[in-house]
């Protein structure tokens, strides 16, 4: 038999589930510890996305229980809008199924793969199905499902389906049993939850770890971030494949109206100009545009001046709230923040924000703690591969009062927060752990760091000046008895009175007071009382807010 015919017998379609079963590292499931974090991250991201989309202030409950050495049970429950019955099996047991992939607006999820990947990993490592409860309104019943993924066909297998009582207006609860490892440290679930609270001040998170320690991160803001608007793609950066598909699918009758209706920032005049620069007839039918003509159209777009996309499709946290979130979780003596104006990479609008906490009990001589975020999600892995890290090491921190040797992470008692918000965050892989090195993004991150760094520099340099004053005063103080002695001999004034006078001229108390001065917190009219979290405290140990502040 011809070899090609032999091979033909073995050739068949590979389902996406089979592919990721073999390549689970691509989705962030490369070891037991990371698998636990990724599972919780995917579920929490979805809960927060769903709540914000439904304009509900999120109350999310995360619970991890250890079943045996490497077997854990994870529960994530939200008060979101719920999921309609018919969609539940596909959402949780079909890879590449979701609501966010096709729209251009800011959300944590993008790909339609996150939660089903966690379900796939759980069933692969423990053989247990995912258990879902979801309810869409107080009037509707709650639906309970137990599901597997049929890996060969990437379709859901329903093991159990029933209507149950659930005392909740609406929401979703997901339960998974998986092979995992729970460890503390900078890449732990504890840290992920804490950083999620920092960057999402409008969220109340109740977290119970396998050691039965429960922490309630109560919200610091009672208002949801503004709802990011959905936008159409901007013509700059459009690629040929996508353009061809859009030309094929559009209901527009002419090329000019196609450009106007399918892209953002293209009015009649700009559309005409693009056609002229291509050159193509504005009246031609979109479906008749050939590949060569589409390439010309892309050239025409690049020659035309088109205004930048609108920024209301992005929902930044804002200087005030990002600082408030940081104050809540990191104890320091000085805080500052910056939110940059919107910018564009490959046609996608984005905003970079930055905040710094400095001094207090933060460790002084080790590298600063860098917290990276993308669309309000903490990034705990792949720090070295992230555009954020390179922007931090590329910045000269010495003028801002931090130590730095060459191009390295600066050292000093500081936490640096960098947040990138965009309609599409360019991650270096599907595991969404590091931001790709687009020059436009790195430039904005550096500008944000420099802006914030300047504010830090003013504070640190002032502090250094006060220290010098205090040292001078101390030095003079040491000679006061001798000076008083001589003066009292010359002027026949009692020595004690002279000492008192000389001491008062030093104004040491005033200098010391300046040094001890704490930067006042901004007026807090939105803060919720600490005990406002509704979720009941169930477990044995309840850590107090103060205990979890960064020592
Ligand atoms: N807790 C939830 N409440 C409401 N809808 C949800 C919830 N979890 C998931 N969904 C829906 O299920 C879809 C699939 O979720 P999934 O995590 O697989 O993908 P995604 O969030 O769209 O993208 P990504 O792969 O980047 O996470 C979501 O797009 C959303 O529509
Ligand atoms: Mg998701």
Describe this entry's structure for a reader.
The protein is 37% helix and 19% strand. The protein has 551 residues and is α+β, with helices and mostly antiparallel strands. Residues 518-551 have low confidence and may be disordered. The protein folds into four domains: 16-217, Histidine kinase-like ATPase, C-terminal domain (Heat Shock Protein 90, 2-Layer Sandwich), CATH 3.30.565.10; 240-303, Helicase, Ruva Protein, domain 3; 319-458, Ribosomal Protein S5, domain 2 (2-Layer Sandwich), CATH 3.30.230.10; 460-516, no CATH class. Helix 3 (32-53) packs antiparallel against helix 5 (114-126), helix 6 (189-199) runs antiparallel to helix 11 (319-329) and helix 13 (439-491) runs antiparallel to helix 14. The strands form two sheets. Strands 5-4-3-6-2-1-7-8-15 form a nine-stranded mixed beta sheet. Strands 9, 10, 11, 12, 13 and 14 form a six-stranded mixed beta sheet that branches. The protein has helices at 3-10, 16-22, 32-53, 88-93, 114-126, 189-199, 240-249, 255-262, 268-277, 291-303, 319-329, 387-394, 439-491, 495-506, 508-516, 545-548, and strands spanning 59-68, 71-78, 130-135, 142-150, 155-164, 171-179, 204-208, 213-217, 334-339, 343-345, 348-358, 369-374, 377-379, 414-422, 541-542. The structure holds adenosine-5'-triphosphate and magnesium ion (MG). Magnesium ion binds at residues 42, 45-46, 109, 114-115.
